[in-house]
């Protein structure tokens, strides 16, 4: 007998289902699960597909950290697999205790819609209830769109890159210089670059190759940040700055990955 679906698909529900408070915790958990898959799944056709699916779920679990709501059809299109194959892979990840599928229903007609998919924290993540430090915290409204717009309209009170050389060395200079015109805190700029790095998915799990090279990633990062600023200047109100930026980066990468001129 089919169980009654009690959860309505809405922002509050997805927020309540979020399983992590820190993106780094989610990334660490996915790395652990990836190693488990490599050591326990011997089939050469199944192992890379499970890892690719797990990485895809991670990439789309940034807005509400640890929970995504992609349909299986969307997953199948992105991974270039059949719907049935994605179903089997999802069931395998669920059997391994790495994800949980939660049935959802639409608010407007109360009919079933795509499941919410939780990435389940490891035992260490569950037992560790200490709140993370502020600079490691998951995307929140730490920097609001209103404050950014004020900075832009206030004759661009920029911070020269010479004043921002405390930014971590792994943030490219051109991106740090661009973003420092609008954000003064190094932690904020570093979080933006983390979002870009996180979206650069592994496309070949045998040798670890990612979708974009370092130089392409810098170009994408600068393009995405300019688009982000233009949207804010146009009056776009954003509650979750990093989550919104994540969407811009993800859409841009999906588009450029199939742009032969850019990739070559």
Search tags:
about 260 residues; mainly alpha; Arc Repressor Mutant, subunit A; 2 domains; three-stranded antiparallel sheet; two-stranded antiparallel ribbon; 12 helices; about 50% helix; about 10% strand
Topology:
Blueprint lengths: L10 H7 L5 H18 L6 H13 L7 E2 L3 H8 L3 H13 L3 E7 L6 E8 L3 H5 L17 H9 L19 H7 L6 H14 L2 E3 L4 E2 L3 H20 L7 H16 L3 H4 L1
Antiparallel strand pairs: 1-3, 2-3, 4-5
Helix pairs in contact: 2-3, 3-5, 4-5, 8-10, 9-11, 10-11
What report would you give on this structure?
The chain has two domains: 117 residues, Arc Repressor Mutant, subunit A, CATH 1.10.10.10; 125 residues, no CATH class. It is built from twelve helices and five strands. The longest helix has 20 residues. α3 crosses α5, α9 packs parallel to α11 and α10 packs across α11. By secondary structure, the chain is mostly helical. The strands form two sheets. It has a three-stranded antiparallel beta sheet, sandwiched between helices. Strands 4-5 form a two-stranded antiparallel sheet. The chain is globular and about 45 Å long. About 11% of the residues have low confidence. It is 51% helix and 8% strand.
Average of per-residue pLDDT values = 79
Uncertain parts: 126-143, 155-165
In the residues, how many domains can be counted?
2
**Structure summary, number of beta strands:** 5
Biggest sheet strand line-up = 1-3-2
Give a quick account of the main beta sheet: strands, pairing sense, barrel closure: 3 strands, antiparallel
How many DSSP helices?
Answer: 12
H and E order: HHHEHHEEHHHHEEHHH
What is the CA–CA distance across the termini? 54 Å
Helix content: 40-55%
- Quaternary organization: single chain
């Amino acid at each position: 007998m089919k169980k009654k679906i009690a959860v309505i698909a809405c922002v509050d529900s997805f927020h309540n289902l979020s399983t992590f408070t820190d993106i780094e915790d989610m990334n660490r958990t996915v790395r652990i699960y990836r190693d488990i898959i490599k050591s326990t799944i011997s089939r050469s056709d199944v192992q890379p597909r499970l890892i690719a699916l797990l990485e895809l779920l991670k990439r789309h679990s940034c807005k509400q950290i640890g929970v995504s709501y992609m349909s299986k059809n969307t997953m199948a299109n992105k991974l270039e697999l059949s719907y049935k194959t994605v179903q089997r892979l999802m069931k395998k990840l669920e059997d391994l205790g790495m994800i949980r599928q939660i049935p959802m229903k639409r608010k407007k007609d109360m009919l079933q819609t795509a499941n919410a998919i939780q990435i389940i924290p490891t035992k260490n993540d569950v037992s560790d209830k200490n709140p993370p430090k502020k600079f490691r915290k998951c995307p929140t409204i730490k920097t609001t769109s209103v404050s950014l717009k004020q900075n832009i309209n206030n004759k661009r009170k920029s911070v020269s890159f010479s004043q921002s050389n405390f930014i971590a060395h792994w943030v490219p200079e051109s991106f740090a210089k661009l973003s420092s015109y609008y954000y003064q805190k190094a932690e904020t700029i570093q979080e933006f670059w983390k979002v870009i790095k996180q979206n650069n998915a592994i496309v070949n799990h045998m040798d670890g190759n990612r979708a974009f090279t370092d130089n392409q990633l810098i170009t994408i990062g600068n393009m995405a940040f300019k688009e982000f600023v233009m949207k804010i200047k146009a009056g776009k109100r954003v509650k979750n700055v990093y989550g919104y930026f994540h969407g811009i980066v993800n859409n841009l990468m999906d588009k450029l990955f199939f742009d032969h001129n850019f990739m070559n």
